[in-house]
Structures are given as structure tokens and as C-alpha cells.
Amino acid sequence: MIASSLGEGVEQLGDLIAAAKVIVPFTGAGISTECGIPDFRSPGGIWTKNRPIPFDEFVASQDARDEAWRRRFAMEATFNAAKPGRGHRALAALYRAGKIPAIVTQNIDNLHQASGFAAEHVIELHGNTTYARCIGCEKSYSLDWVKQQFDADGQAPDCQSCGDPVKTATISFGQAMPEAEMRRAAELAQHCDLFIAIGSSLVVWPAAGFPQLARNCGARLVIINNEPTEQDDSADLVIRHDIGETLGPFIGN
Ligand code: NAD
User: Fold this and answer.
1) In total, how many domains does the chain have?
2) Of the candidates 111, 137, 170, which is a domain's last residue?
3) What is the pLDDT of residues 190-235, one digit of tens each?
4) In whole angstroms, what is the distance from residue 247 CA to residue 14 CA?
5) What is the atom index within ligand 1 of the atom nearest the CA of 241?
6) Do 50 and 150 have their domain in common?
7) What string of H, E and C letters represents the secondary structure of 142-154?
8) d(C-alpha 11, C-alpha 13), whole Å
9) How many angstroms separate the alpha carbon of residue 104 from the centre of ligand 1?
10) Which atom of ligand 1 is nearest to the CA of 35?
11) Pick the catalytic residue: 88, 112, 121, 126?
12) Quick one: 122 exposed, middle or buried, by C-beta within 10 A (0-12, 13-18, 19+)?
């Protein structure tokens, strides 16, 4: 059912939250647009400017790695300046209140951790862009280290331990999904009574399968997104409004 107005949506969401014992939020890029981080698919989003670099291309080509890192450095000021928005803060309030055991996110911006979620309670399906990792031995590197190497050599660095390429700790298209995170997200979806998809176009698979998994296991499904998604028909409540406006009233919880 689509809420006829923002007010009606907030009221119905409030009722569902009050009735729920275990809430699992599932967030996408839309929760972070009010923090200054563009999403992928909206007008002005990242993909309207740059074609994504698939994983096999990153592995095969030094030029692709250099380009990937140039793009990441170009976003550094934006990521550094971003602070949790109203959506992040509302979810953190429900987490503190004991209603949310953990959050599943497609985002890579670290803003759920910054809003107060313990790192072990943020299930990052697509990794994290605030640090780097060797794609071979998985050794972690700071972005500062990568930048220093890049500036010194004029190209993206390889791992000091094993010599494989170093990449942001994110999951690119064509890269395997993280097994432990996929397993934990599935368990959370299967054992909640309210699943709230927030700011995701729900077109990136397999992540987009979790709302339906939750629904099939008996949870109520709410979708908050300012444009239609393919899963709206199966939701108990669709709030097609701004996320900050919708979740702002729950910050005080
Ligand atoms: P997406 O760009 O496909 O979809 C975002 C959705 O949010 C869109 O449908 C858009 O209309 C909606 N939206 C944007 N701002 C909104 C607002 N203020 N209120 C309500 N709705 C709003 O993003 P996705 O589904 O998360 O999938 C894209 C992939 O992009 C993810 O895998 C993620 O890893 C990556 N990504 C992450 C970030 C980030 O970490 N902040 C930013 C860009 C892309």
C-alpha cells in the first residue's frame, strides 16, 4: 500500500515500529544523499558521469586501477565532509532502544558506524570505501598510504606483502560477494518481524533479494524511496517521500 501523504506514511511507520520486536533496516545510497554523497542512479548521480570499472578490468589493467584510484581521490573531500543524516540518526536511535539488532547496508560510506552503530552490527554487503585492501592477501591499507604511493610513483600501488593490486575495500561489479556478510544478512532477514528498505532502487542483485526473503519469512516490509521500485507491490507500506523527512520524527526515540 502506498502512503497517500508523508504524514500518513510517518504515522503508519510509527505504528509498525511500535508493534515490531525485531527491526532490520536495509539501506542504500539514498539515505546518504542528504549528507552530500551522490547516489548512483538519480540525475546527477555518479553513473551519469562515470561508467563503473568492473572487477576483472581493475585486476587486468594498471590504467583501470589508476583511473579507479583517481576517481576515489576526487571523492575524498566529499566522503570526509559527510556526517550522518536524519535517516542514519533515526536508525541509530532505534538501535540504541534495542529494536534493531544489526543493520544491513549496501553503502560503503561508513555513516552508520559514524551515527553510533557498533562496527560488528553493520553488515556491509558491498564493503567500505574509507580504507583499502589487497585483493590477494587482504592486508588493509589506509587511503593516506595509497595516496602517498600514488603521488610518489604516478600509479596505483600494489601490496607490500604479496604484490597483488590494492583496491578500496569495496565490492565491484563482477567481484564475489562477501560470504559471511551475505550469511548474516540472510539470518537477519529471516528472523525479523519488520524489514525496512531505505533509499535503494532495489536493482542491484543479490542484495535486492533480502526484502523478499524477509517477506517470505513472515516479516512486514516497508519501502522508503522517492521513486518507485520493482518491489513496491509486495510491500505492506510504501513511503515515496524524502528519507530525512520520513525518518526525522524517529530521531527522538
Ligand atoms: P541507487 O543509486 O541505485 O538508488 C538510490 C535510490 O535512492 C534511488 O531510487 C533514489 O531515487 C533514492 N533516493 C535518493 N535520495 C533520496 C532521498 N533523499 N529520499 C528518498 N529516496 C532517495 O543506490 P543503491 O540501491 O544503494 O545501489 C547502488 C550501489 O551503489 C550500492 O551497491 C552501493 O554500494 C553503491 N553506492 C553507495 C553510496 C554510499 O555509500 N553512500 C553512494 C553511491 C553508490
Assistant:
1) 2
2) 170
3) 999 999 999 999 998 899 999 999 999 999 999 999 999 999 999 9
4) 10
5) 20
6) yes
7) CHHHHHHHHHHHC
8) 5
9) 14
10) 41
11) 126
12) buried
